[in-house]
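Reopening this ticket.

The earlier resolution said the output was attached, but the attachment link was broken on my side. Pasting everything inline this time so it's all in one place.
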Amino acid sequence: MQRHVFYDEMGNEVEFVVKAKFSVEDTDYVAMLPATDIHSPTYILKVGIDDQGQEFLEGIEDDELEEATEAYEELLKENLQ
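Inline output:
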């Protein structure tokens, strides 16, 4: 699993483990959790592309989050079989 460092709103470093990158239709998402607390809930964020072609992560609204969560849970089920 990949590890990435992000910064919270106070400027503190927070390391996350990316559990999966997946797509729903033409939209990419990542599922990740804090590296220091593997028992915390999994965060699902949308992957966007900026003007320079670089990826960035952004939060998503409840309806989109529900759809992305369902797709992630289905991915987990497929990997367990």
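Reporter confirms the inline version is readable. Residues 32 and 43 are 5 Å apart (CA to CA). The chain has one domain: 2-80.
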